[in-house]
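I hope you will forgive my troubling you with a question about protein structure. I should value your view on which stretches of the chain appear to form regular backbone elements. Here, with my thanks, is the record as I have it:
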Amino acid sequence: MFAEDYDVPIPYMQRTRDYYLALGYDNPYRWAHFTEVPFTPLRKPLAQSRVGLVTTAAPLRPEAGDQGPGAPYNAAAKFYQVYSVTTDEVPDLRISHVGYDRKHTSAADINTYLPLTAMREAATAGRIGALAARLHGAPTNRSHRATADDAAELLRRCLEDQIEAVVLVPS
């Protein structure tokens, strides 16, 4: 059965470019992209590798206003420094600081944007060798230069944690 004519992918990249122009910027938004990327194949099977988690979810800051499930967009909840927290327990991370479809989801289930429980289960089942002792937070809403600096700091922390593979979870 064919989908309805309106059931097409959302052209979010063009929408973002148009939005920047509508805000008065001289040029449309330009995503950072490179001709070469630093990804490499795993040196050993995933079942023998220490796996880390990098997320854009923000630590709860009560003074920053409503950040709970269903909260409206909240720029005050943004964070601007890479952070690291233990994976021994599920941290109180939220996603009110990013744009997502608030009509069809509420962010009530942390597992939908922070797969820490699933990663623990994967380690217990032997699908990954081990879960790293810390997870790391990557700031959003940044310039290309700041993002490159954040990436270098995230890499440093991942190497410090002896992470061999990482799951990137943008919110």
Remarks:
- The chain has one domain: 43-169.
- Residues 144-160 form the longest helix (17 residues).
- The CA atoms of residues 116 and 151 lie 21 Å apart.
- Residues 43-169 form one domain.
